[in-house]
Amino acid sequence: MFCGGYACAAFACIVSDAVFGTLPARRIYDTNSARVGDMINVHSPTAHSMIVLADNGDSLTVCEGNFNGTIHWGRTISKQELQAGLSEIITRYP
Known about the structure:
By secondary structure, this protein is an alpha+beta fold. 20% of the residues lie in helices and 41% in strands. The chain has two helices and six strands, in the order H-E-E-E-E-E-H-E.
């Protein structure tokens, strides 16, 4: 998947490619539809990209690059919070 960007976006693209290889991408816009491996792009409070590691019902566990300057695995964020600042979710599931 071609993914322009630096820092968190570049990290998310690298993880997505490692998981899905060359499968094509499409956009969805509902955090309740997010699945493991999907890339979440938020615009609020600041632009940020992350990859879903687990769906916990009302929250998602993510991995992310450039979170306070480092890579983080395992932060849990409520779906409601993510939805409020959502730009898009990139999924590579058919």
